[in-house]
Amino acid sequence: MKIERSKLMAKFPKAIFGDLKAAANRKEATGIKLIDLSLGSPDLPPNEKVRMELSKQAALANSYGYTLGGTEKFNEAVANYYNRRSSVTLNPKTDIIQTMGSQEGLVHLPMALCNQGDIVLTTDPGYVAYEAGINMAQAEGYYMPLTSTNEFLPDFDAIPDEVCARAKLLILNLPGNPVPAMPSIAFFNKTVAFAKKHNIIVLHDAAYSEFYFDGSRPLSFLEAEGAMEVGIEINSLSKSFSLAGARIAYIAGNADIIKIIGELKSNLDYGTFRPIQDAAVVALDNAEEITEELRTVFSRRHKILANGLLNIGWEVVPSTGGMFVYAKYPQQQFNDIDFVYHVIEQTGVVIVPGSIFGKSGENYVRIALVQPEELIIEALERLATL
Ligand SMILES: Cc1ncc(COP(=O)(O)O)c(C=O)c1O
User: Fold this and answer.
1) From ligand 1's centre to the CA of 287, what distance in Å?
2) Any idea which fold 7-45+289-384 has?
3) Which pLDDT tens digit goes with each residue over 268-322?
4) Residue 103 C-alpha to ligand 1 middle, in angstroms?
5) Whether domain 65-287 has CATH 3.40.640.10
6) pTM (2 d.p.)
7) Cα–Cα distances in Å, from 313 out to 230, 305, 361?
8) Whose CA is nearest to atom 6 of ligand 1?
9) How many whole angstroms separate alpha carbon 107 and alpha carbon 127?
10) Which residues form the Aminotransferase class I/classII large domain (predicted)?
11) Which residues contact 145 (CB under 8 A, 6 or more apart)?
12) Domain-by-domain residue ranges, the chain?
């Protein structure tokens, strides 16, 4: 029998991470200790209270049934968290839906809202799951460049009218991956006005909402006036609570949109393991304490890495938040893909080329703040030798 990929599969290119890992492994085999700053996988353990709740609930015999989605307790914990953090009022019954990690939500969501050929507006560079979701829906992506001239924010005024007319969905991510630009209320207000004018649903990915370093938290999109009329926000416990492997996230916002996503999800999965949901409730109920600890660690790392790169002649995109440093390296004789392999080969430091997130990422790299300070300092020392 001949086994063939569907035509759609051509739209899902092989991710570069496997090749980077293979190059890193070859380097490690020569006796060099790698410093891996590639994946945005949090290195800190989840808070002890969260882990204890998970193991307590997992030990109970009656914890193993289908959950069919978020428990009442989980949705209430999300609503309370939003209320405490952002003064946003959410109805736990209608305005929140759980997803099995935000990746799952992001790749499925466009299917629920877009028809074949509709346009989805998103950023270049942008997180790779947006494109996967656009492809799953057989929609078309329109990529708004994030560049230094527009302070790494999308410029809605530059989008042609005919594109706006065909656009169904706008995906934003602030502070983002790979570009850690921060949102302002002025930008979100502008987003709401743009969405209303052109009848476009807004999806804000707030995966890095608890990573900020100067005391001012990134705004929730739902804080902007009128945001609940036009959009939703997806957030995850993966990064802010170091629960990446537990696969738990949620979408909050416009009840009509949440209802449609619920209809799709009822065909896709049977919900997250209840002990994980219970542990997530403990995390959200203790969010202030848990995320403050995270910020103490990450803000130091951010300062060390950003300043260290500046000192060795790199152009660091300024930011006060996010989990990554996004920077232009001085060795511009290399394109960004060749450069990261060169860096692995010469130093054993593993970083990610900007162009895998979109064309505007060419000549930039993304460096994740996922190693202890001493290793970040050592990585800087090695990068200085290039
Ligand atoms: C911007 C952004 N959104 C979503 C995700 C997916 O995270 P998860 O599926 O663990 O919630 C990531 C992971 O790196 C990300 O960077």
Assistant:
1) 19
2) Aspartate Aminotransferase, domain 1 (3.90.1150)
3) 999 999 999 999 999 999 999 999 999 999 999 999 999 999 999 999 999 999 9
4) 6
5) yes
6) 0.97
7) 43, 12, 19
8) 103
9) 11
10) 33-383
11) 123, 124, 154, 358, 359, 360
12) 7-45+289-384, 65-287
